[in-house]
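Inputs:
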Amino acid sequence: MSNLLELGSQNNRKAYSPQFENLIVDEKRAKSLVEGSFCIGHNYIGWRTSRQFIADLINKPGTIIDIGCANGFLLRSLQEWSDFELIPYGIDISELHIRQAKKLFFQTYDQAGHDLSGNFACASIEEAAWLGGHRLPAQYDFVYCTIAHTRTAYEEALKLVRPGGRLICGFYGRNEYAVGSPGQLEEKQLLLRRVARLKEQGCVFDGVVENPFGTGHIIAWRQC
Ligand SMILES: C[S@@+](CC[C@H](N)C(=O)[O-])C[C@H]1O[C@@H](n2cnc3c(N)ncnc32)[C@H](O)[C@@H]1O
């Protein structure tokens, strides 16, 4: 077994599915999936260090949409990292990314037997209110979004959250500074100021979580 898979099974709360192990066992393929989700220059371990803390905000089974899902690898990873069963959906403004996401989920199925590749559509966050036109549900238990940089985008994302669900907004740094270094701390302050600016504009967040693994990423979330 490679170091990579050993690390996965030691540190994860549950073992990876064989299908996921197949995806990440080949380091070149894993790197291409990671980079296809904008985690440039990193391998699977770097990816997990950078994104796994998002899974801690998932507090029940249900549906999740990633607005700006890129190649879908974050959703696929959250399915493995979360303790809860997640049905993934995604939209992205880029047709190429949606093609990649559909390919990633091709012939993977939900409990009702639907091919999950049908859960992805090329759409912009501005069209979030018309997801029905893309044959996607109107609301979700979890809405993940890294592009809620303005109050308008925040409100579009919020509309997609089912009552009792959660809006989870990711704010990513450049992920290139050593843990605890002045660069990393400065970057974190910059991201926290972005959240503060959204709050000043009337956006509501119930909590802010900093990545405990040190990469300059934070999450602001709202319980609905
Ligand atoms: C940084 S990537 C995030 C990928 C993944 N969600 C993650 O967190 O790892 C941002 C994605 O948002 C998409 N995007 C940018 N503007 C968008 C818009 N207005 N509507 C939908 N997607 C958009 C980009 O094409 C890109 O794939």
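The chain is about 35% helix and 20% strand. Flag for discussion at group meeting.
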